[in-house]
Amino acid sequence: MVNITKDTVIGDILDIAPQTAPIFMSIGMHCLGCPASRGETVEEACYVHGIDVEKLVALVNEEANRKEA
């Protein structure tokens, strides 16, 4: 089970759960491949983009831990 927190680095999330990329893209994080975004924590990215960190963490955890049918 993946446990993502507000302190998890986005690049690490994308490495272990690439299926979460559309969630980040949908909230305006379009440059997921650039070094700055891959090195940010979820909390830092939410601050920059004006997103509720707790809601995003919940969404990303749900998708990262979703079982494929």
Would you kindly provide a written description of the structure presented here, covering whatever features stand out?
- With 69 residues, the chain is mostly helical.
- The protein has one domain (10-64).
- It contains five helices and no strands.
- The radius of gyration is 11 Å and the shape is globular.
- It starts with 9 loop residues before the first helix and ends in a 5-residue tail after the last helix.
- The relative contact order is 0.25.
What keyword list fits this structure?
single chain; 69 residues; mainly alpha; 5 helices
Helix/strand layout:
Elements: H1 10-16, H2 21-26, H3 35-39, H4 42-49, H5 53-64
Précis, in short:
With 69 residues, this protein is mainly alpha-helical. The protein has helices at residues 10-16, 21-26, 35-39, 42-49, 53-64.
